[in-house]
Write a structure and sequence with these properties.
By secondary structure, the protein is mainly α. 84% of the residues lie in helices and 0% in strands. The radius of gyration is 20 Å and the shape is elongated. About 4% of the residues have low confidence.
Length: 159
């Protein structure tokens, strides 16, 4: 009987310590993404070329979606809302940047094409996120997905 108790105790200690190790590993990854997000946003302030700005905004949007996914996993609906709002603002800005660039999407599709492809991929990511979030918190994800779909359709029509 004592052997079973000892084995149970060892298993519990191993399980708890592995959770702590996993959490620390995620925290390091989270910090790297936040650092990268700051660098990409700083790069945006320096860029004037619309295609380069759009590519940077695509990177920012990807990072924000990964942070939104982590907010779902950690059960933080306020953080999820914040990240999704930032994501929508970013893709709107990327869309505006390309539309106001004066470039003809048929003759010079660079930037437009990258944005359309990225939005297609991000819509799939948002679709996956909406399946993992609870019903109560699904609305912000669905709104972000709808906005991304609308922008993607507009860019696609321009091409």
């Amino acid at each position: 009987m004592r052997a079973i108790q000892r084995i149970s105790l060892v298993l519990i200690v191993v399980a708890v310590s592995s959770c702590a190790i996993h959490t620390n590993a995620l925290r390091g990854q989270f910090d790297k993404r936040l650092e990268r997000l700051q660098k990409e946003r700083a790069k945006l302030n320096r860029q004037t070329d619309p295609v380069d700005r759009t590519k940077t905004q695509i990177n920012v949007a990807e990072i924000l979606l990964s942070l939104a996914s982590d907010a779902i996993k950690s059960g933080e609906p306020e953080v999820l809302d914040k990240r999704l709002t930032e994501y929508v603002d970013t893709i709107r800005d990327a869309h505006e940047t390309m539309m106001k660039s004066g470039r003809d999407a048929h003759k010079k599709p660079k930037g437009f094409k990258e944005l359309e492809i990225a939005l297609r991929r991000q819509i799939r990511m948002l679709d996956d996120l909406s399946r993992t979030v609870t019903f109560d918190h699904r609305d912000p994800v669905e709104k972000a997905k709808q906005e991304a779909s609308d922008i993607r359709e507009d860019v696609f029509r321009a091409l």
